[in-house]
Amino acid sequence: MGMGWKLTKGVFTASHATSKALNNSMQQGMVRRQANRGWRAAASGLIGPFDPPPPPQAQGYLDYGGLATYNDLNTEDWSFPLGRYVEPRKRWEAKERDQLGISESVANKHTVVYAPTQAGKTTSVIAPWIYYGMRAGYLVIALDLKGNNDLRDKVEQYATSHEPLPGAGFGSFDYTNPSESVSWNWIADLKDESSIEAAVEALVGRERDNDPNQAFHLRDMRWMQGLLELLGGSGTTWTVRMVLELLEDHPRFQHLVTRQKGSRAATRLADLAFVPSDEYYTKIQFLTTYLEVLNIDGFVATTRRAELSLDDLADDPGLFVVTAPIGDGRLSEAVSSLFLGQFLQRQYKKFNRDDRPVLLVLDEAPRLKDRIDLKKLMSVSASSGMSVLLAMQEVTDFEEKERDVILSNCGTHILMPGGGQKTTEYFGGRLGTRIATRQTHTSGFGHHQGSNFQAGLQTADVPVLGRAELASPPCGPYGAFVQSYSLSRKPILVDLARDDLT
Ligand SMILES: Nc1ncnc2c1ncn2[C@@H]1O[C@H](COP(=O)(O)OP(=O)(O)OP(=O)(O)O)[C@@H](O)[C@H]1O
Ligand SMILES: [Mg+2]
User: Fold this and answer.
1) How many CA atoms lie within 13 A of 258 on its CB side?
2) Residue 122 Cα, ligand 1 centroid: separation in angstroms?
3) Which atom of ligand 1 is nearest to the CA of 145?
4) How many whole angstroms separate alpha carbon 114 and alpha carbon 500?
5) Is pLDDT at 39 greater than 80 in this prediction?
6) Distance from the CA of 478 to the center of ligand 1, in angstroms?
7) Residues 160-183: tens digit of each pLDDT
8) Of the residues 84, 114, 124, which should be mutated to test ligand 1's pocket, given the most ligand atoms within 8 Å of the CB?
């Protein structure tokens, strides 16, 4: 703090009118008691919204005066939980009865969790949200970035201490465990031009402004699009491995293109297929690198049969998990983007239709930014009946232009402890500023009792919550700050600690 403190024009200003009034010893006593309370709060290290202003000598305390008090909350029946309300005074503890949360319609304005790795976001937020989504009849689509059933286990663990889920099914697309996975031949499932375009974006990457290799990138996209169209018109069920074998055989490839002569696919592939062979084998590498990533046994095994069509996904499971361990790098990115791109492209067509609601859970969302149009996702999905729960580590994981569109499309923001400077700054910036008061210098306060005691207040425009305050919520390891306008104009301190785990 210490920024721009200025005198108020209120009752307690140090104007001579007030000083005169304070000559009355009773009033002086009252003011002194008030000052003492402010001093004690500051000395405890934490100032909350219930505390009187601290004295000017007070230093080194954290000022949580901008937090919501219980009276600031519009508590409603909730569908998705946000932890227990922490009353910002005395013991700074959550009470069992004050479980907070948001309704389905507020969740439909999307939610973002800012949390460094291992902050507990899966256990504290993601798993409980999936559980409640399933209970409310949502189709929940989620990425498991750890593998070994991390996500499913954490949802089940949560369910064991809550009401059991009535018959909600579970499905997975998991190249790390083909025997448990549904088989999804994504190539056969490319049913129209927009699904092919989404697959191209997921494999080759999205078009970027200022890309120095833009011309090559566009060419690669055109070839990939042509290739996928060619395969779709071939009457065969292809795996990536089979496609790579095809591309490594120039005459065979040429033959297939010739068979579809005059088609859009053939036109797009003409400058690749009908060149001398040495040129062909040089050029084809540009295309095969995108596919090689997916050429691993597990992925080939889980894509061999056309068992699942994403059009039917909403008919069955409560939870569908796509496993793509983050340690697999580009493979993980390609698989999650391929699936999501296809799913989203179908979901967007449900514009304003009365379908089953969807909860999409995207852990580490910035990872997908080059392959999925997240700006579109955030701005279009609400009207298609889809609510998004994003999790990310730092706001800097997005480029600034994109970040603002993505995050300003979130109605609820959850900040878990340990965020970096830019992230806390961003969250703090969203909260804005407030007028804070503190006591003016009261010379001799506490020593010269009864002498010329002068008390007054100064005000200043300060952040609703400062950076130091935001870095560590003052209520145990699973404390968090929530900003959700439906609950309060002010930020809310919550405790996400799970009773069943502690
Ligand atoms: N709300 C909670 N109450 C009690 N314990 C918790 C809570 N949240 C997390 N934990 C503990 O912390 C561990 C790590 O949590 P979790 O795996 O959910 O973190 P994460 O942020 O999802 O990690 P990662 O970034 O690796 O995905 C859990 O195994 C659990 O024991
Ligand atoms: Mg996790």
Assistant:
1) 7
2) 6
3) 27
4) 24
5) no
6) 9
7) 999 888 777 899 999 999 999 999
8) 124
- Which atom number of ligand 1 is nearest to the Cα of residue 478? 1
Hey, is 124 helix, strand or coil?
Answer: helix
- Written as one letter, the residue type at 33 is R
Ligand nearest the Cα atom of residue 393: 1
Q: Above 80 in pLDDT, residue 433?
A: yes
Boundaries of CATH 3.40.50.300 in the chain? 73-174+313-417+478-495
Strands 139-144 and 319-323: parallel
Q: Which range (37-51, 315-329, 473-487) has the least confidence? A: 37-51
pLDDT band at 231 (very low <50, low <70, confident <90, very high): very high
**Confidence (pLDDT) at 11:** 30
Overall fold of domain 73-174+313-417+478-495 = Rossmann fold (3.40.50)
Q: At what angle do helices 240-247 and 214-232 cross, to 10 degrees?
A: 110
DSSP-derived letter for residue 402 is H
> What's the CA-to-centroid distance between 411 and ligand 1, angstroms?
24
Contact predicate 128/162, CB 8 Å: no
Residue bearing the CA closest to ligand 1, atom 8: 120
